[in-house]
Design brief:
113 residues; mainly beta; 10 strands
Length: 113
């Protein structure tokens, strides 16, 4: 019943920006902290950013700190990831995630010149 649908990925040049969206359903969204993860072939999933239930606390991986911004809109059951100054190493499939919840199909982000 829990469903997370990511969107907004695409191909961007280094230094460019992209905004990812995640639409959530099937659970009480406002009761859960949410995170964005990413995964590249041959590498474990990496937690990129997390946000508390009301959005007051945010946490970022060192690799994206200062470049990415996580936000949420509980009225819309949505979580977002604004990605600025993108680097080739940011290339990955990006997933939003509910704690202890299922994984969706993700959205592909490719950073290349």
């Amino acid at each position: 019943q829990v469903q997370l649908v990511e969107s907004g990925g695409g191909l961007v040049q280094p230094g460019g920006s992209l905004r990812l969206s995640c639409a959530a359903s099937g659970f009480t969204f406002s009761n859960y902290a949410m995170s964005w993860f990413r995964q590249t072939p041959g590498k474990e999933r990496e937690r990129v950013a997390s946000i508390s239930t009301r959005g007051g606390i945010k946490d970022y991986a060192d690799s994206v700190k200062g470049r990415f911004t996580i936000s949420r809109d509980n009225a819309k059951n949505a979580v977002y990831l604004q990605m600025d100054n993108l680097k080739p190493e940011d290339t990955a499939v990006y997933y939003c995630h509910q704690y202890m919840g299922p994984w969706g199909q993700g959205t592909q982000v490719t950073v290349s010149s």
